[in-house]
Amino acid sequence: MVTTKGKRRIVARVGSRPIHLPQGVKVEIGEGNVVTVEGPKGSLVQSLHPEMNIHLAESILTVDRPSDAHRVVALHGLTRALLNNMVVGTSEGFQRSLELVGMGYRVQQGGEGIILQVGFSHPVEIAPPAGVVAVVDSPTRITVSGCDKQQVGQFAATLRKIRPPDAYKGKGVRYSGELVRLKPGKTAGRS
Prior knowledge:
Blueprint: E1 2-4, E2 7-9, E3 19-20, E4 26-29, E5 34-39, E6 42-47, E7 53-57, E8 60-64, H1 70-91, E9 94-101, E10 106-110, E11 113-117, E12 124-126, E13 132-138, E14 141-146, H2 149-162, E15 172-175
Antiparallel strand pairs: 1-2, 3-8, 4-5, 5-6, 7-8, 9-14, 9-15, 10-11, 11-12, 13-14
C-alpha cells in the first residue's frame, strides 16, 4: 500500500502487470469491453466489466482502473487474469490429467466422448462440451484439453465427480498428482 497526502492508494499486484501477446495471437476490443482473442489453438470471446479500461499497444495488453474503490481494485485483477487466460489458452492451450484408481476401474474412448467403468452396475458415458477434447492415454489415464481454462477445469471436475476418491481406500477418479489423505479404518483403533 502506498500513501499519497494522507490518502491510501492500493497498488495492484496482478492487475498492473502487462500481458505480452505471443506471435500469431490477435486481440480485438469491441464496444462494452467485449474482447475477442484469436490464436493457433482457437478463438475466445469474453465480455468483461465495462468499468475497466483495456488498452492494446504494440502487442502489449494493459488494464487500468478508474478508481481505488475496493470493488474496482478486485475487478482490476480479475479482468487482467481473465485476459491472460484467454491469451495463454489460444496460444498454448490448457490441460488437466486424471487417473482412475481401483480394481477394475478403466476408461475407453467411445466416439466423441469417453466411457468410464468405475464400480457401478453400468458404464458411464460422458461427452465433452464443444471446444474441449478428452483423450484416453491408457486404460486408467484421461487428458482433458482445450483453449478455455474454465471449460477444461469444469469438465475435469465433472469427470472426478462421477466417482470421487474414497476416504478409506483411495479408489476413484482423481487428478494426476492429487494427494488423497486416507482415514484409518476400524481396525486401526484396536491395535
